[in-house]
Amino acid sequence: MAGIFVGLIIAASFAFLTAHQDRLTFSSLTPNTLGGNNPAASGRDPLLWPFSRDSIWNLPIGSNARYVWAGIHHATSMAYFTDADILVLQPSAPATTVYANYDDWGAGTRCSAQGGALFTAPIPADFVVPGSHQGSPDGDTPNAAAAILAADGHTIIQTQPFARCAGQSPTSHYMFGSEDLYGTGETGSHGGSGLSALGGTVRLGELVPGGTIRHSLKLNIDSANFYPGLGGYRWPAWKSDAGGAGYGGSIPEVRMGSLLAPKPDFPIDTLETEPGKIVAAAFRDYGGYIVDTSGWSIYNFVTERSPAGSVQDEFNKAWGYSLNAGVGANGWARDLDKIFTNLYVVDNWDKATWQTVSVSNGNVGVGLGTPRVGWAPEFGQVPPPPPPPPPPSPPPALTGTTITLTTSKSPSEINETVAVSGRLTDASGSPVAGRVVSLEWSADQITWYPEGQIGQFSAADTNGAFSDHMAFRGSGDHSEYIRARFVGDATFATSLSSVVTQAVVKLAVSAPPSPPTSPPPAAEPPATPDRSEPAPT
Count of alpha carbons within 13 Å of 268, Cβ hemisphere only? Predict the structure, then answer.
């Protein structure tokens, strides 16, 4: 049931979202050489105690830390249930290809390759990580956030959910940004927060008799404790999962990425078990970052599962009882309940404060003030040279363009307004819209100038068309020349139109009209003889 809840939350989270040249051999990981039992004075092995001194995973809490009550609810399902991170830190192991699988947190097994290669990294040939519904000690659908060290000894490849069923190739699905083993190492493949799969993990050799945890913890607890809202995260987390709108808490300071710790006066000596005291001391001195939701009411801090073994098995052998514990089942369960329900948020902790702490060179702790314990020592070995930066990616191929250009009439008279228009298309003849084309002018086709009347056309319309008006000047009959230029952009290549020759003629002057011809004079009528009087008879 827990696996189903976790699967729904994480699958939703990923729906909301959307990564070696010099080989180097480090000492192998074995339980009796790990973790807090290594004396700090001898320096640090980065495989056992990774990341820089000023990494959030290594910084102790300072005396000026401001504590705000976290109000973590009593767990009602289990006092602890394991959720291991998969750590493969053997850069000399055989190069192994990890393939895509899309079963995620559903009914599938995660065992088979369902897609192409995701990456190739050093993974021992005999390292098995059961998939979903395959009897994994981390539940039916384990989160299986993985951190794998590349052969260069620097690059931490992070992915989720990782599986390697017996006799099959390893698989995973979601890829996250890589980190440097010697860097600050904040981010990674915890889908609820975007925080590291390596940093903050309880390692082999730390939760054993006489052990010490010298780093912060990672917490995977019920989202009923988290303040709701899709913005429900705080630095160093860079996201909350897609279930963030349904978080059930009421304290604004308790969000994905919050650093939780008991107050300095927490009575560790009153705890019943040695492992309880080890965990409580780590919480008091370093705190624990909320990195994921458990999907059910449990307590959890994240532990190691690697080719060297698992903290879960080591714990059972070392203490004689199980790391997983029912509510109130034994002293270990009661200790966890007392620790988790006495946690506070270290509220004065953000990126700006970290920057102040980072440059203090060990003099200031988380939340400012004197650190409760000393900073992590320097690495006890010279780091290998970092891998060279990858060559720059070639620029994307640009789509070719073509410009046509014409005028509304040629010849045109001097100073007569003429329409100039054209069309910008791609190599297939499709219109290129929204781009600006400029106009150039020449008197001799040798020297070209920006045309001064139009200069630039308005952006091409949806058909790639552009137009404007201008007049050709000068005196006497002559020719002028224009052409259009598109300078190109990140998608389309530059282009230049053919030259348009414009004939320009002077205004024709008409001859003055001839005066009208006078009509000929009218002919005089013939004389009419005078009437004579009749002669008298």
Answer: 17
Per DSSP, what are the bridge partners of residue 101? none
Instruction: Tell me the CATH class for 401-505.
Output: mainly beta
The HSE-up count of residue 229 (CA atoms within 13 Å, CB side) is 11
d(CA 100, CA 116): 6
* Dihedral pair phi/psi, residue 334, rounded to 5°: -70, -35
Domain boundaries, the chain: 2-358, 401-505
Q: Taking a C-beta distance cutoff of 8 angstroms, is the pair 502, 405 a contact?
A: no
Q: Which helix (H) or strand (E) holds 449?
A: strand 449-450
SS3 per-residue string spanning 293-362: ECCCCECCECEEEECCEEHHHHHHHHHCCCCCECCCCCHHHHHHHHHHCCCEEECCCCHHHHHHHHCCCC
Helix (H, G, I), strand (E, B) or coil at 224: helix
Q: Is the peptide bond before 536 cis (omega within 30 degrees of 0)?
A: no
CB 160 within 8 A of CB 138: no
pLDDT the model gives residue 41: 41
pLDDT digits (tens, 9 = 90+) for 331-387: 999 999 999 999 999 999 999 999 999 999 999 999 999 999 999 999 986 666 766
- Structure confidence at residue 293 as a pLDDT band (50, 70, 90): confident
DSSP string computed for 353-405: HHHHHHTTTTS--BTSSSBSSPPPPPBSSPPPPPPPPPPPPPPPPPBPEEEEE
Residue 422 carries which side chain, given as an amino acid letter? G
**CA 503 to centroid of chain Cα atoms:** 58
How far apart, in whole angstroms, are the C-alpha atoms of residue 331 and residue 130?
A: 31
Q: Please give the share of the chain, as a percent, with pLDDT higher than 90.
A: 70
DSSP state, residue 60? P
Nearest CA to 231 out of 222, 223, 239 is that of: 239
Q: What is the mean pLDDT of residues 410-428?
A: 95
